[in-house]
Amino acid sequence: MAKKKYEPPVPADMMPQHIAIIMDGNGRWAKKRGMPRTYGHVQGARNFRKLLRYAREIGVKYISFYAFSTENWKRPDDEVHALMNLMRKYLKEAYDYFDDRVRVVLLGDREDFEADLRQQFTDIEKDTGEFEKMTAGIAANYGSRHEITGAARQLAQLVKEGKLEPEDITEELLSDHLYTKGMPDVDLMIRPGGEQRLSNFLLWQCAYAEFYFCDTLWPDFDSKELDKAIVEFARRTRRFGGL
Ligand code: IPE
Ligand code: IPE
Ligand code: MG
């Protein structure tokens, strides 16, 4: 029998609940074609939308995409500018996700964005806040160390104000002060683009994640590649320190 268009690659109970993706390799993808790096970002953003839809169709409940790191501000101004404009465009168009029941959450520090972009993030979080089919985390101006430092500061402030005792600081409470509050830990961390590192992405949340690296550059990472990663995930034995 022919495979249905959107059949999950593994049985539902073997699917990762939370998938995180480091969308890497856009620049090299463009360079290989003699095009400017920003063209790679345009293609990468298109691919983001395609894979978001595919993940939703196969029943992924939580997905987080690394779009822009706290370190990416070091890039040339024109590239940073192009990336910000792509975010504006995609947030505006994300209003078709409404029909799709996807809750969009910004993972990152909104303070460094220009006011209009900050507002776009605030609006989309508000407008999609009740949707339950899938949660999509968009990591923009995201850095794990920045996130954890921020959480430590918030908790310290509560202690200072006498609202919290130091001994009441638990792993759960710290988790509740991260951008991923309410999301489960990452089950499957995927990095296309050939590098084998986290680049400051979801360090806390990946404590027991399975890692999947591949050489395919992000604009070419399609639904078949995602299926492959999920099949590999389902084959692994997770022990979480037990036997
Ligand atoms: C990832 O692609 C996108 C961002 C970091 C915003 P890169 O721009 O890092 O592409 P490469 O790694 O240089 O090919
Ligand atoms: C990680 O990619 C950040 C994003 C994909 C948004 P980078 O290209 O910035 O990572 P490094 O510099 O190779 O570690
Ligand atoms: Mg890169």
CATH level 1 class label: Alpha Beta
- Give the strand tally: 6
Give the terminus-to-terminus CA distance: 39 Å
Tell me the CATH superfamily. Answer: Decaprenyl diphosphate synthase-like
**Unreliable segments of 5+ consecutive residues:** none
Inertia-based shape: globular
Cofactors and ligands: 3-methylbut-3-enyl trihydrogen diphosphate, magnesium ion
Largest sheet: 6 strands, parallel
Structural class: alpha/beta
CATH topology assignment: Undecaprenyl pyrophosphate synthetase
Average residue-wise pLDDT: 96
Question: What is the share of helical residues?
Answer: 25-40%
What does this structure look like?
It contains seven helices and six strands, in the order βααβαβαβααββα. The chain has a six-stranded parallel beta sheet with strand order 3-4-2-1-5-6, with helices on both faces. The longest helix has 21 residues, at 37-57. The protein has a single domain, classed as Undecaprenyl pyrophosphate synthetase, CATH 3.40.1180. 39% of the residues lie in helices and 15% in strands. It has 243 residues and is of the alpha/beta class. The chain has helices spanning 26-32, 37-57, 77-93, 115-128, 144-160, 171-175, 223-235; strands at 18-22, 62-69, 102-107, 134-142, 188-191, 210-213. The structure holds 3-methylbut-3-enyl trihydrogen diphosphate (2 copies) and magnesium ion (MG). Residues 23-28, 68, 72, 83, 193 line the site of one 3-methylbut-3-enyl trihydrogen diphosphate.
